[in-house]
Structures are given as C-alpha cells and as structure tokens.
Hints:
Radius of gyration: 19 Å
Largest sheet: none
Oligomer: single chain
Shape: elongated
Amino acid sequence: MTAGKSKSEVSRTRILDAARDSILSRGFSAMTVDAVCQSAGITKGGFFYHFDSKDELGAASLARFWCDAEQRQAKAPFNDEPDPVKYLEGYLDFAIEAYQDPDLQKGCMLAIFTIELAESNAPLFKAAARHFADWRASLLEMFERAATHADKRIDARTWSDLYISTLEGALLLAKSSGDPETIRRSLTLYKQLLLQSLLAE
Length: 201
C-alpha cells in the first residue's frame, strides 16, 4: 500500500488511473465499468463504493486531469520570472520539455471530451469546455502582458488560440504517426515565430 494512503484511497487512485488510460487510448464512450474494474483489480462493488456511475467517474477523471496540469505548471521554474516576455518564453519552453513525457503524449482529455461528447453528454462536454475557457483566458492574459511589456501590437487572442491549436494538433499527429518529435517540432516553431513578433525591431 502507498505510504500515507488508506486502502480506500489506493483503490480510488487505481480506478482513476485505469479510467485515464482507457479514455486517452480509446475515448470515453468506449470505456466500460467492467474494463476499468478489471484493469484496476477492483470488484464492481468496490467501483460503486467510490463512483455512482461511469459519468461520475468521467467527471472525476477530467477534474483530476486538469488539476494535474495546473499542479505541474505551478511548480515550473518560469513562475519566478518577472519579465512578461521571458515568462511567456519560459512557459513555452516548459511545455516543450513537459510533452516529451510519454504519459503526456497519450493525448488531452479536454480535447477527447469536447470532440466526442458535444452531442451525447452535455454535462461532461460543458465541464471540458469550461477548462478550455479557463486555459484560453490565462493564455490571453499572458500574451497581453508580454505584448504590453514589449510595446508590440499583436493579436494576443489569435496567438493564444493558435497555441492551443498547435499543441492539440501536434498531439494528434504524434499519436497518428507514431512520431512524438512532432510535438517538439511544432511547439518550437510556434515559439520562434511568436518571439520574432514580440522582439522584432
């Protein structure tokens, strides 16, 4: 048993781990309670002790995915950078390195829920959309601060949206082609073009 965790907490973690792997590899709709229980080594009774339904597990999995991303970013070294342009550059450098992790290369749960559940599961779709909106808002603020500091007129909203599009597209291409370097190449080119716009004389 993991140190400091109760048997119940360990079981819940195993269920969430199994759900994450299933969602990222096959999608939410293809995930079944039976498969999650088998992967986690949990009985159905154990599953329903923690979650009332597959949808509740989906909501918990999405919340955990977002929380993990926020915690990962909160610990990143760029947070100590006072210069807004260097802060933004540090954010991008951190993303480039973070997405060399094979676990992160498995995909983005926000994108999966948004694409897959828009017409079939309004609550989970809306939850994913809220996280996307929060992400866009934080990016927009970061880009606007960098542009103001550099005294450059750039379309901060478009650059923010382009970052999300570049990352999500790179994750898809990396998975479909079996070439994870797609992520590094795409984000590196994005960073180069953005810095040219911000730092050009």
